[in-house]
Amino acid sequence: MFNASEISTRASHQNATPFWQRILNEEALRDCPPLEKLLVGCQLIVALDGAELLAA
C-alpha cells in the first residue's frame, strides 16, 4: 500500500513538471495536503482531456 508519509515533499517538488509545480504552489491550495493537491491535478487533467484541450 502507498504510504504518503514516506515521500519527501522536497524531492517531489524538485522533479515536478511545470503543471504540477503550479498545482503544488497554488495559493488557493496552500493549506491542502499534498495528496489533495494530487487529486485536484488529476481532476484538471481529466477535465482538460474531456474537453480535448490536453496537449498530446
What does this structure look like?
The protein is an all-alpha fold. The chain has a domain at 31-56. Helix content is 55%, strand content 0%. The chain is built from three helices and no strands. Helix 2 (18-25) crosses helix 3 (34-50). The longest helix has 17 residues, at 34-50. The mean pLDDT is 76.
State the major sheet: none
C-alpha end-to-end distance? 31 Å
Instruction: Please bin the fraction of helical residues.
Output: 55-70%
Question: What is the string of SSEs from the N terminus onward?
Answer: HHH
* Broad structural category: mainly alpha
Low-confidence residue ranges: none
Q: What is the count of β-strands?
A: 0
Number of helices: 3
Looking at the chains present, what oligomeric state does this protein adopt?
A: single chain
- Global morphology: elongated
Approximate strand percentage: under 5%
- Radius of gyration, Cα only, in angstroms? 12 Å
Determine the mean pLDDT.
76
Brief descriptors of the model:
56 residues, mainly alpha, 3 helices
